[in-house]
Amino acid sequence: MFNVFVKKKGAYNADLMGEYSNINDAVKFANDLKEKDETISYTIEETSGHFDSYGEPISTVVKRG
Questions:
Q1: pLDDT at position 49, please?
Q2: Hey, which end of the chain has fewer CB within 10 Å, N or C?
Q3: pLDDT at res. 34
């Protein structure tokens, strides 16, 4: 599963904008958002379905833009 997070300039936290099973769909979605508003930045993370000792999902950053 790939999660797309978008952070607006000046915002403290990034917002989850979508979850995708295919990396290509996630990248296309993130790039489309970036084209509409160049002040945002995005992060695509891959989750493996495993959790840490605090119950938070373990994820790996795949791409930033």
A1: 87
A2: C
A3: 93
Query: Per the structure block, which two tokens stand in for 4?
Result: 């797309």
Place of tokens 């995708």: 20
From 51, 48, 7, 45, select the one nearest 26 (Cα to Cα): 45
Average pLDDT over every residue of 43-56: 93
Q: Hunting for tokens 């290509």 — which residue is that?
A: 24
pLDDT at residue 28, rounded to an integer: 96
30-37 long-range contacts (CB < 8 A, ≥24 apart) are 30/4, 30/6, 30/63, 30/65, 31/65, 33/4, 33/6, 34/65
Name the one residue in this structure whose structure tokens are 């373990």: 58
